[in-house]
Structure formats: C-alpha cells, structure tokens
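We treat protein structure as text, and this decision shapes the records that our systems exchange. Because each token names a local backbone shape, the row as a whole describes the fold. An entry from our holdings is shown next, in its original layout:
>
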Amino acid sequence: MDGPTFRLGRRRFLVLAGVGVGAAGGVACGSGAGVQPASVGDVSAGNVSSLPVGSLRALEGEPVCIGRDSGGVYAMTLTCTHAGCDIGTTGEVSPSGLVCGCHGSRFDANGNVVSGPAPSPLDHFAVSADAAGNLTIHGGQVVGASVRLVVMG
C-alpha cells in the first residue's frame, strides 16, 4: 500500500461535498455575502398586549421572531446569515440576544452580529397591527433595523 498520499483540508472537503453551501444556493461558508432569509409571507404574531417592552420571542413554526423595545414593535428573520440555519429551532432567542446552534454565531436583540461566523445582521420585517392590536409580520417586506411599529399602551 505504497500509493501516493495527499491531504484534503476540512474547508475544501466541505465545499467539494456541497456541505458548505447555504440555503440561498451557492453561498459558501466564509463567502462574506451572507444567506438570504427564508421566504415568509404574512405571519400572525399575537396581540400587542401580550408583548411587553423588553421582550423578544420566536414564533412557533415560522423562521421569524417578534420583539418590543422602548421604540416599539419589530420583527426579524431567524435565518442565520452564515449557513442558513433556523435559529428558532437550532438555537436560542431571548431578550438578551440570539445564538445560532449550528456554528455559534451570536446576535444582539436587534439582530446585529456580536460574534461570527455570521457575516451580516439579521433582516428586519415590517409589522402592522389592526384596531384590536393583533400583530402581523410581513415577511415579504424587509425594512431597516431601526424601523418600529409605535403602539400605545
């Protein structure tokens, strides 16, 4: 068994095996571009009365979370920008921030990267409320990270 030997680095092996390709298709680990959020339509997010200031929670069955800070109500994707993992099912979502369980990326409560390998912040989505205070996240409408739905009470 004196054949030639060669070494194949982990990153090169993963790229060749297709493991390093993100959910958006063709986005390899370490590319720096980030993964696009999972496609989400309009999602019912409960009533504003059950969302106190200082809260952030994942919505069951959807790759989105909703939060409320002193500025109002906001929503974000839970698709990690590193490899497309759903933070809501593989990680942790809390008022102190988000942690992706796949590769350890950490985000603050507004979706900004605290530590990688995630290359970019989480996208925010538009939020609306009807007259009764029922919230809807509009997953097809990406908004700036500072945009909030101002609510009274």
